[in-house]
Amino acid sequence: MNRLSKEDIEAKLLRFPDWEYFDNAIHAEFEFENFKDCFSAMSRIAFECEALNHHPNWSNVYNVLTISLSTHDAGGVTNKDFKLAEAIETIVEQEE
Amino acid sequence: MNRLSKEDIEAKLLRFPDWEYFDNAIHAEFEFENFKDCFSAMSRIAFECEALNHHPNWSNVYNVLTISLSTHDAGGVTNKDFKLAEAIETIVEQEE
């Protein structure tokens, strides 16, 4: 899995308006009604992560979920990150 | 719920060797076998948080869970944080 160039990442991000590229990773923040809704989305995302064998750096405070994705072995952002970002978007759209 | 003094917090922390006090909150880091075990513990902790109506500032990267507890309304650490820390310890001991 090759690390994508800054240009490739920025081109791909046009389809991901919730996500930003900085510090060698892609980042998004999602806000939910409350903690329960937020953690429900996290649980569904956790299953996707296991299925894709790719795991986020993520934080939660009450109803806010902050996610950063990068591919450690590649030293940057790869298509694996965009695949997981897409799965996350699908889940969040259903839960938000 | 009153904010505890530094002395009170440090006295209480003697019973919580995994936790440290700094930046006006108590903090712990827990390591698990893998992501699944880590997220399982997080799920059990999430139920406790809802039951206690008290929520952490927490982060996860693969098998590592980092938790910070403070009571926003009190502007610091209160007995609510120690109650949740105790519940977290019980869960983590069973999962780790």
TrEMBL record, chains A, B:
Source organism, top-level taxon: Bacteria
Naturally occurring in which organism (per UniProt): Hyunsoonleella flava
Protein family per UniProt: Belongs to the pterin-4-alpha-carbinolamine dehydratase family.
InterPro entries: PCD_sf, Pterin_deHydtase
GO molecular function: 4-alpha-hydroxytetrahydrobiopterin dehydratase activity
Swiss-Prot/TrEMBL catalytic activity: (4aS,6R)-4a-hydroxy-L-erythro-5,6,7,8-tetrahydrobiopterin = (6R)-L-erythro-6,7-dihydrobiopterin + H2O
Lyase listed as a keyword: yes
Keyword Oxidoreductase annotated: no
Pfam families: Pterin_4a (PF01329)
Entry keywords, A to Z: Lyase
Biological process per Gene Ontology, one example term: tetrahydrobiopterin biosynthetic process
Enzyme class: lyase
Enzyme Commission designation: 4.2.1.96
Protein name: Putative pterin-4-alpha-carbinolamine dehydratase
